[in-house]
Design goal:
alpha+beta; globular
């Protein structure tokens, strides 16, 4: 079976077909098999392991791009709160999720970062998760009133950091 999506599913340049709906259509054609559910159920408990940065390899096929400004924002957040969000990595140390955090950690000169090894994922699962991990967060919205309340509370406190560390 070819690893490329069928041509009739992918949108052509300049046409109005939405890539997301095309990929969704492809996913619906390839329904999840019960074995996948068993694979993650038998994966066991996830364990955070601090790994040296030099042992981690960014995936060259990662489609998500990080601007220098965003890397700087992530670095400021990590400098303020610490590297508390683990990177997901394969058994070989290839990054599946957390490419931006890895770049920020390197920028900060960190020697190690928290990781979670996801050995139970197949190559196809890792590729799909890499896309899902980046895309699914874009599908949410902010509750403006609650966000405003958070900033009002934070503004009234004697913080040791600036509010720009939030990315706003």
């Amino acid at each position: 079976r070819s690893r490329q999506a069928p041509r009739d599913v992918l949108p052509e340049k300049g046409h109005g077909r939405c890539l997301v709906s095309s990929l969704l259509e492809l996913a619906m054609r390839q329904r999840a098999v019960p074995q996948r559910r068993r694979a993650y159920a038998s994966a066991g408990a996830l364990k955070i392991v601090y790994q040296p940065i030099e042992n981690l390899v960014p995936d060259p096929a990662n489609a998500r791009q990080h601007s220098p400004r965003q890397i700087e924002q992530i670095a400021r957040s990590m400098a303020t709160f610490g590297p508390i969000v683990p990177l997901l990595v394969s058994d070989a140390g290839q990054v599946i999720a957390g490419h931006g955090r890895l770049l920020a950690a390197r920028q900060l000169g960190l020697r190690e970062v928290p990781t979670i090894r996801v050995s139970h994922l197949s190559d196809a699962d890792r590729r799909a998760f890499m896309i899902a991990d980046n895309r699914l967060t874009e599908n949410s919205t902010w509750d403006a009133a609650l966000l405003r309340e958070h900033f009002e509370v934070l503004s009234s406190l004697d913080l040791t950091f600036g509010l720009e560390v939030t990315g706003f």
